[in-house]
Amino acid sequence: MSRVNRTNKEMAEALLKHMALLREYAEKCFIHGEANYAGEVAGKLRLLVTRFGSNRPLLLDLMNKFDSNIKVTLGGPPIKRPPGVPRAGDEITLEEYLQLDALGVRIPSGDFVMLTKVELIRAWAQQTGASHEDWTMEPELKSALDFPLQIMGLQATAAELRVTTETVIHVGDQFIDELQKGGILNV
C-alpha cells in the first residue's frame, strides 16, 4: 500500500516504528560510538523530516495533518519568538529548526558554503548511502554535499548531527504522546 493511500492510524503506526528505530540507531551511533550506524540514523531522519526529491517527511506531514503545534526551544528558557531570526530561548517549530544553519564547509573551489540542518541531514544521507531520490540542486550546494563530512571523525559535525537527531526524537516522542492521547495510537 502506498503512503498516499494510508489511513491516519497506519501512518501513525509507521511513525511509531520509525521513531523506535531512530532511537535505537542514534543510541548505537552516538552513545556507543558505532559509526556504521550513522547511515541508519541519516536514513531515518531523511524519511522523517526532509522534503527533498520525492520524499514526503512522515513526521512533519503527520504533524501538519493533525495541526500539531509542538515547539522546540533554542538554548534557554522558552519564550515566545519575536519577529526575525530565532535566538536563544525562542520557541520555534521543528520545520523552522531544521532550516537553521548547522555547519559551514569549504568546498573544493575554495568557496565556503553554510549548510542548514536539513541540508546536513541530506548530505549525511547521501554520503552514507541512505538516500534514494535523484535530487537536483545548485552547483555550490551539490559540491558541499559531495564534500566528505567525516561524520564520526569530525567532532563538530558529529555534535551537530547528534543535537539535530535528539531534537527530532524529542519532538517525535511528544507528537506520539499527542496521538496516543487522541486515540489515534493505542500502545
Blueprint (SSEs and pairs):
Elements (H helix, E strand, L loop, with lengths): L7 H24 L6 H12 L8 H8 L5 E3 L17 E3 H5 L2 E6 L5 E5 H11 L11 H8 L8 H27 L6
Antiparallel strand pairs: 1-2, 3-4
Helix pairs in contact: 1-2, 1-7, 2-5
Short description:
This protein is mostly helical and 187 residues long.
Total individual domains = 1
Number of strands: 4
Low-confidence blocks of residues: none
Strand content: 5-15%
Question: What's the N-to-C terminus distance?
Answer: 23 Å
Strand order of the largest sheet: 1-2
Helix percentage = 40-55%
Main β-sheet description: 2 strands, antiparallel
What's the pLDDT, averaged over the residues? 79
SSE string, helices as H and strands as E: HHHEEHEEHHH
Description:
There is one protein chain. By secondary structure, the protein is mainly α. It has one domain. It is 51% helix and 9% strand. The protein has helices at residues 8-31, 38-49, 58-65, 94-98, 117-127, 139-146, 155-181; strands at 71-73, 91-93, 101-106, 112-116. It has a two-stranded antiparallel sheet with strand order 1-2. Strands 3-4 form a two-stranded antiparallel ribbon. α1 runs antiparallel to α2, α1 (8-31) runs antiparallel to α7 and α2 packs across α5 (117-127). It is globular and about 55 Å long.
